[in-house]
Amino acid sequence: MTFTELLGLIFSGQNLAILGAALAIILAGAGSARGVGIVGEAASGMLIEDPSKFGKALLLQALPGTQGIYGFVVAIFIIIKIGLFGQPLDLSISQGMYFLMASLPIAVVGYISAIFQGRVAAAGVNLIAKRPGEVGKAITSSALVETYAIFALLISLLPIIRFNA
Amino acid sequence: MAVSLMKKLSVIAHSNDVDKIIQSLMWLCAAHIEKTEFADSENPDNDEPLLERIDCDGEIAAVTKKISVVKEALDYISTRGKPKKSLFAQRPEFDSSVLDDSARWNLCDQSAERIAYISSRLALLKSEEQKERDLLVSYLPWREYNLPLCGVRTLHSVSFIGILPPSCSFNEISKYFEDNFEACLELISEDAAGNYVSVITYSDIYDSVLKYLISAGFIRASFTDDSCTAQSGIDTAHENIKMIMLHRMSLESEADELISCTDELQLYHDVLTTNLARLNAKKKLAHTKSAVFLSGWIPVDYQEAAAKKLENFQCAYEFTEPSKEDEEADNVPIYLLNNLVCSQFEPVVALYSLPRYKTFDPTAVMSIFYTIIFGLMFADVGYGFLLSAGCLIGIKLMNPRGSMRKFMNMFALCGISSIAAGIVFGGYFGDLPTAIMQNFLGFETLPDISVWFNPLNDPVKFLIVSMAMGVIHLVAGMIVKFYILTRNGHLMDAVFDVGSWLLLFAGMGLYFIPQISTIGLVILIIGAAMLILTQGRSEKNPVMKLLKGIMSLYNIVAYASDLLSYARILALGMASAVIAGVVNLLGTMGGLSIGGILGLTFAFAVGHTLNLVINVLGTFVHTSRLQYIEFFGKFYEDGGRAFEPLMPDAKYVTFKVND
What is the mean pLDDT of residues B582-588? Predict the structure, then answer.
């Protein structure tokens, strides 16, 4: 078998599409994990002084988790569209690349925005350590970062939903 | 459905009556005692200040110390296995006058101190016994050696003892010893730790003997007290251990007699903690030589009851409306009034922030959407049933108070909603029925057990359902804003700020229905025009007015991002369903056999429990987040201060009041 045939086997249409789904969940999930972890560390530090604020801290900790959820949604949609839940479609390499490219927005933006959202939420944890009544402001600041992940989700989903075999 | 109106209470009373008055207000369970604010002023006759804060730090320290002693006693009693109360026993009730029974409490004090003392003595004795036992163990291998353990030095000879490692060959060393030294190497005993030997040698070859032995791994034995022989050391240790045990037994039997007053001690504990609560309230008051000043907040519904209680004392009291400064500075505590069902959701609101005084209380509206969205995300009959049953049983067994109880009630309600959603979307522990049918019973085609559709089969449809839920939620938030603005008398603001957006969205929605799409377009244009014309009305410059109006259309991006956030309903619902599906697949892999059924039980117990716990947490957090950010963001005025009424602090008993 020639090298191009081998490449064609490794990067077949189906595989490229699955790679797209994998990227979406890998990068978005990794970003969310890191973001949530950053907030968790800040929250643990705050709880040393005042364990009664755990509920508010938990809420802030959950905020960067959104990007992982969005990556998961995109990955599931790709998997469904290429037929892995029923009859696997026979995709050409170009169609596989279609899905790979569609997954890029949420993958990259999900990773980066989750980390930055984690940093904002961690700062929010520091805020509620001194001023427990301002948790609303902390949550709002953190949610502003999420706007761009939402745009990325939309742009990722549209080509996938509109795919016609 | 509302934030309760508050009255400010001010009381001036005799110093003698202060404890009784505070206690009386405590039984009301509705008085939030405030720190009495006063300006520094001085008596013109002497230099002492006229008003001072009451100083009861000494009393507080004494009561705190007593509480820790009683706690220690109760801990000790629980380690001795106090008589187990039946799981469904009610808390014992006592009349409130019991707090004043000082003779009874003095007796209790002594018992508690005695038990605490016994507990610490026993701990000490236990460590002493351990020391003696360790000593015993160290002497035991040398029992056959009848010289003093420190060894003996005569004029020309030395004897000493030590341990050779077990890895060395004792016979070889013994042979070498015999051949090379004029000395005697004797094996006393051996065990896993090594060979215990004694050496007798002439003083002049002592150094070379020792050097040889050390090279073979010899270690000299050391003891804390080596002036005695092994046997006498063992005997002494035995004696000491026996004495310690006798001492322990006598102390323990004394403690066992005192255990009979466990109930009394628990009551005493609650009396002390309630006294502590009273003292902490007393700390906030101000006093002169013979009068005290109390200030606090009472909800209007309790005003009469408070007045009746204060009538029993010779004091002056008045109820006033909160001042403008108090309202502005959010000093007025917030007490929410809701019906029985909605009030279970108050801790969720409090977790974010309480509403400001005289603003809208979102609990009732939020509770409806919370239940529905929680149900949509959780959508499983089996999990919902376990959640509800678990919470109700937990309430019965643990009998929690306050917000913990409300949380558990709330989860039980959400569990019922999940059951309903599970029936609609066909989730019974994930896809357990179809998995059983496929792998155990060998069905070829699997029926669809959902009433509407299964989200795993048609996720795009479920995404549309989530978005629809989002639209309803957001529009409800905007309607609440409209209502609030109208209620405050700003009808025009309501129409321009909220009404125009509602028209725009209505037009957008109608546009997608083919028959009336032109009507939709018209409404949409009207809404957009209203926005452009009215959103700049606070500006003076007409150009700025128009510009600001056009810029306001950009907010549609914010609404779109809010709407897209509801995709998490799809994501969380699918995540729990997919994991449950995997658990079922693993569990039913064994087929219909003994092993298969065992596998299913195991998968059930471990996999579904884990899935349930993780998903309850995730669903709670994300449903709350949707309320706090998307819903509350439309209308909520937050920043209120919590209402913390003075209440008896009782863990084991309940105090009853009779007026």
Answer: 82
ipTM: 0.74
- Closest by Cα among B137, B354, B110, B120 to B224: B137
Of B625, B632, B633, the CB nearest to A62: B625
Q: Are B505 and B475 in contact, with CB atoms under 8 Å apart?
A: yes
- Identify residue B500 by its one-letter amino acid code: S
Answer whether residue B87 shows pLDDT above 60.
no
Residues B209 and B14: their CA atoms lie apart, in Å, by 92
**What is the per-residue DSSP string for B519-556?**
HHHHHHHHHHHHHHHHTTTT-SSHHHHHHHHHHHTTHH
B567 and A70 in contact by Cβ < 8 A? yes
d(CA B206, CA B158): 7
Cβ contact A133–B353 (<8 Å): yes
User: How high is the pLDDT of residue A161?
Assistant: 84
Closest by CA to B431, choosing from B414, B441, B446, B443, is B446
CA distance B20 to B193: 71
What's the confidence (pLDDT) of residue B42? 66
Tokens 């693993």 identify what position? B586
Percentage above 90 pLDDT, chain B: 24
Contact assessment for residue A56 and residue A132, using Cβ atoms and an 8 Å cutoff: yes
Model confidence at B46, pLDDT cuts 50, 70, 90, reads: low
**Of A111-115, B178-182, B300-304, B334-338, where does mean pLDDT reach its minimum?**
B178-182
Put simply, the answer to whether B621 touches A58 (Cβ < 8 Å) is yes
pLDDT at B86 over 70: no
- The structure tokens listed for B324 are 């403008």
Note the pLDDT of residue B594: 83
**For B447, which DSSP code?**
P
* pLDDT for the residue numbered A72: 87
Contact at CB, B564 and A62, closer than 8 angstroms: no
CA distance A5 to chain B (A): 35
Q: Which residues of A touch B567 (CB under 8 A)?
A: 69-70, 73, 153
Question: Does the pLDDT at position B118 exceed 90?
Answer: no
Contact A73 B624 (CB under 8 A): no
Q: Is the pLDDT of residue B282 over 60?
A: yes
Query: Nearest residue on chain B to A154, judged by CA atoms?
Result: B564
Let me know how long chain B is: 659
Cα B60 from Cα B283, distance rounded (Å)? 9
Name the pLDDT band for B90 (thresholds 50, 70, 90). low
Helix A93-130 vs helix A66-81: crossing angle, to nearest 10:
160
Residue B658: the pLDDT is 63
Contact (CB, 8 A) for B248 and B620: no
Residues in chain A whose Cβ is within 8 Å of chain B: 55-56, 58-59, 62-63, 66, 69-70, 72-73, 76-77, 80, 85, 133, 135-136, 139-140, 143, 146-147, 150-151, 153-154, 161
Question: A32: pLDDT confidence band, cut at 50, 70 and 90?
Answer: very high
CA–CA gap between residue B376 and residue B462 (Å, rounded): 10
Shortest CB distance from B638 goes to which of A72, A136, A150?
A136
At residue A92, the 3 state secondary structure works out as: coil
Provide the 3-class DSSP secondary structure of residue B293.
Answer: strand
Distance from the Cα of B490 to chain A's closest Cα (Å) equals 25
- B449-488: per-residue pLDDT in tens? 888 988 888 888 999 999 999 999 999 999 999 999 999 8
- B81-112 CB burial, b ≥16 within 10 A, e <16: eeeeeeeeeeeeebebebbeeeeebeebbebb
- In Å, how far from its chain's centre is CA A136? 24
Do residues B317 and B10 lie in contact, with contact meaning Cβ atoms separated by under 8 Å?
Answer: yes
Name every residue whose Cβ is closer than 8 Å to that of residue B143 and which is 6 or more positions away in sequence. B189, B230, B231, B234
